[in-house]
């Protein structure tokens, strides 16, 4: 249903580095960028190469938390995201585990990104 999602961040370059490094096991990479004012917007793609996630400069202070869940191909990828987040010093809200209250097989890790948003890597198998 969702074609792409844009998230405004305080520091595009720092957020790009966080997402690409932390979610490397999911195949996230920079796909394209274009100028926006004195900064830029960057499209992040997964395995299909299409920039489904966009980071752009925030126009002001954000006061609402966004929850963003990224698909993982398997549980090992979720675990790898967790390890990358810990190595980078990212806040881990919930370490990887199965969440049967969502549905059987829902395996996820929940993290805080650089702007305080709740980001998740999830495998539904």
TrEMBL record:
InterPro entries: Glyas_Bleomycin-R_OHBP_Dase (IPR029068), Glyas_Fos-R_dOase_dom (IPR004360), VOC_core (IPR037523)
Entries under CDD domains matching the protein: VOC_like
Classification via PROSITE patterns: VOC
Domain VOC per the UniProt entry, residue ranges: 1-124
SUPFAM superfamilies xref list: Glyoxalase/Bleomycin resistance protein/Dihydroxybiphenyl dioxygenase (SSF54593)
Pfam families: Glyoxalase
Origin: domain of life: Bacteria
Name of the protein in question: VOC domain-containing protein
Provenance organism: uncultured Frankineae bacterium
């Amino acid at each position: 249903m969702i074609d792409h999602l844009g998230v405004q961040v305080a520091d595009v370059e720092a957020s790009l580095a966080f997402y690409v490094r932390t979610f490397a096991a999911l195949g996230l990479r920079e796909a394209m960028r274009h100028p926006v004012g004195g900064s830029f917007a960057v499209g992040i793609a997964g395995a299909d190469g299409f920039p489904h996630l966009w980071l752009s400069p925030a126009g002001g202070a954000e006061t609402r938390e966004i929850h963003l869940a990224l698909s993982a191909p398997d549980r090992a990828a979720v675990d790898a995201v967790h390890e990358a987040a810990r190595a980078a010093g990212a806040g881990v809200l919930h370490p990887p585990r199965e969440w049967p209250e969502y549905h059987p097989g829902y395996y996820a890790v929940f993290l805080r990104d650089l702007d305080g948003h709740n980001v998740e890597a999830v495998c539904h198998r």
